[in-house]
Amino acid sequence: MPQSGQFQSLFSQKLDRAVFGTYFLGSVVPTAFLAAVLHQYVLPGFGQDGLATTGLIGMLLGVGVLSLASFFALRRLVDTALKRMKADNRRLETILTASRDLSGALHTHSVADTAAQCAIALTDVGAAYVLLQAGRGKPLLVCESAGQDPAPLYQANQETIGEVLDAAVASGTPSFLETGDATGRGPSAIAVIPLAVAGGLRGAFVLLHTEPGAGFAPEQVDAVTSLAGFVSVAFQSADLQNSQRNFFSRVTEILVTALDAQLDQGDARAGHPNRIAAVANSIGRELGLAEEPLQRLHFASLLHDIGYLKIDRALHFDPSQCKAHPLLGFRMLSPIRLWQDVAPVVLHHHEWFDGSGYPEGRAGSDIPLESRILLVADVFDKLTHEDFECPAVGVSEALDQIRAGTGRQFDPRVVDALAAIASRGELVA
Ligand SMILES: [Fe+2]
């Protein structure tokens, strides 16, 4: 299936052919037709009047030359218009792609990175920067940049850029400066486009042309100004996501503290969820997990036993009652949108690799990888920390005991990852 760029190319080719055909039919064909009519019907009527014949032929040639000249002139105009249209289409396509990428960007830095790359594509500048305000009334600082060696270029011209930046911030509109630098070492033109949000200024684009004599075309500025609108909305969305994450981190801490108090298994239990989260994170990174599953694993590690809050404390040591805690935890977490993908990891954290665990008796890869990691991290922490029933063992002894359950209770790949981390001395009991 053709991509949008291919569609654009096909469209341009068709338009080009149509324009050529129209002018050919409108100028060359009528001229040829006129010549044929004159030759067939008019010229014979002049008889031997050579002067009149020459005059007519000259007039005919003149009309033909003018017609052809206008044909080529019009083709040139159409070519220029087509080139402009193609450039506009490219810019539009770049903005549409950027708006799609920006809507999926969850973090401030990924929004800034996409914005800087897109600004380069829209303007062909040598370097683009996205500056952000760290807080109300604070100065704008470079968050992300793109282009060739952008950092030293910015540092070397900080004072000049600062003047254009101040002008743009004060007016709230794009500001420009042509430096006249023809050496190619400094920027030849500077543009600053503010990023405004409902509460005021959030940041700014700084664009530096480094080619001597280069400047900003009005259509390029219009395109970056349109992009700035999308980027501002994306920053607002990322800021909101960030505050939601902070809120959920604080709520998780409160729940973990409540869980520790509810389980009341002595001092060794204190910090158990945070230790598991650290070990699980190391295993996840060793296995090459991306940031999203690592986040899921982190929250699941902290909340894996949250279901115990729904079980009467007097029944905590009754195995038949305890087995309900993964399902109870799943039911507590799954209605909360930000924990919906954490809930299945909690549900399956007591499944065994051979299918003999609970609550569903899932086996192998049917168990979420994060749950398989969580199980190994949980058992490792329990083995290396004393509780009411067992004394603590060292890392080496704990690894031996876990290895004994490889393929039965534990995923061999996860156990290998734990062993690799231990061999580097990165695990402490
Ligand atoms: Fe558990």
Task: Summarize this structure as a short list of keywords or feature phrases.
429 residues; alpha+beta; Beta-Lactamase; Hypothetical protein af1432; binds fe (ii) ion
Structure description:
The chain is an alpha+beta fold. It folds into 3 domains: about 5-100; about 105-215, Beta-Lactamase (2-Layer Sandwich); about 265-425, Orthogonal Bundle (Hypothetical protein af1432). The chain is about 60% helix and about 10% strand. The chain has helices at about 5-40, 50-105, 110-125, 150-155, 160-170, 220-265, 270-285, 290-305, 320, 325-335, 345, 370-385, 395-405, 410-425; strands at about 125-135, 140-145, 175-180, 190-195, 200-210. Strands 2-1-5-4-3 form a 5-stranded antiparallel beta sheet. The two termini are about 55 Å apart. The model is unreliable at about 1-5 (pLDDT under 50). The structure holds fe (ii) ion (FE2). Fe (ii) ion (FE2) binds near residues 304, 325 and 350. Fe (ii) ion (FE2) binds near residues 304, 305, 325, 349 and 350.
